Amino acid sequence: MTKIAFACVGNAGRSQMATAFAERERDRRGFQIDIVTGGTDPAESVHDEVIEALQETGIDISDRTPRRITAEDVVDADYIVTMGCSVDQFRPDEWDGEHRVWSLDAVETREQRDEIERRVAELFDEIENRDAT
Questions:
Q1: For the chain, what is the domain count?
Q2: Would the N or C end of the chain have less CB density within 10 A of its end CB?
Q3: Does residue 104 lie within any of the structural domains?
């Protein structure tokens, strides 16, 4: 089974949005994909503006809590996607998956949301095409 990890610093914004979109994309496509998220320095709560921005797309993450990402979370991950943090802070030495850095051009939450949604769909397209060959 494919596993994707989404990480950012606080796990209160970008990685939470990416995880929510990945869960939705997984369900839409009927994929067997394990998804994990965390931050290198987790915040106390998910940002209110992120919850609101996702609710506008029909996704509710109001019950989620930021958490720390660990080497154990990603040791078997096929992909680690980082947004603003360094994979070296939590990646185990023996890890041999694919690392993606998503440097987001957008600053405003809703623009970030839209960019993340697009990137998640593109990642799932890649996974689908890889699995088809």
A1: 1
A2: C
A3: yes
